[in-house]
Amino acid sequence: MEIKLIQGDITGQDVDAVVNAANSSLLGGGGVDGAIHRRGGPEILQECRALRASRYGRGLPTGQAVATTAGRLPARWVIHTVGPVHSASEDRSEQLASCYRESLRVADELGAETVAFPAISTGVYGWPMDDGARVALSTVRGTPTSVAEVRFVLFDAAAYAAFERALGEAPPG
Ligand code: ADP
């Protein structure tokens, strides 16, 4: 699998699937979630509502992932996953790793070959960027998948630099 780091806006990525750092309600929020729904249009929210009605009445659990259409985005699908809120007293990195693994599993089910990820949980959910980058890269590298290309799309220079450092540290997968 090829791993690419890009600084920019994930909503413009020309990939098969874009991963959304959603919240458990699946009804939209700020950050990446807000950007995806704004640019992707109402079709995505409609499908999210249907998923809530049929399967996730109590919300999508943290660490799980589910796909919808990508509406007007250049991508074909959006894979919604719910990251953990960072905690100073409890290690939730297994839940964060699960977001990346489960998103790749859903991508495999869809037959997606190129997938773009944001830095899950590192915004409103407060995860320190360096650690979030290490979890992201080590998990993606350690997950068996038929996805051929994973792009990490980092919103700003600091996030990009953190992922570059983590890529340098991680053993080649
Ligand atoms: P979470 O609630 O999981 O923390 P956020 O959306 O608040 O999710 O933030 C996750 C990361 O995505 C942050 O590093 C934030 O800077 C970044 N981000 C926000 N908007 C975009 C975007 N349009 N494209 C890529 N990354 C984004």
UniProtKB/TrEMBL annotation:
SUPFAM superfamilies cross-referenced by the UniProt entry = Macro domain-like
Cite the InterPro entries for this sequence: Macro_dom, Macro_dom-like
Macro domain location, by residue?
1-171
Q: Which Gene3D superfamilies does the record match to this protein?
A: Leucine Aminopeptidase, subunit E, domain 1
Q: PROSITE patterns in the record, alphabetically?
A: MACRO
Write down the CDD domains for this protein, in alphabetical order.
Macro_OAADPr_deacetylase
Q: Which Pfam families match?
A: Macro (PF01661)
Entries under PANTHER family matching the protein:
GANGLIOSIDE INDUCED DIFFERENTIATION ASSOCIATED PROTEIN 2-RELATED, MACRO DOMAIN-CONTAINING PROTEIN
The name under which this protein is listed is O-acetyl-ADP-ribose deacetylase
Organism of derivation? Streptosporangium minutum
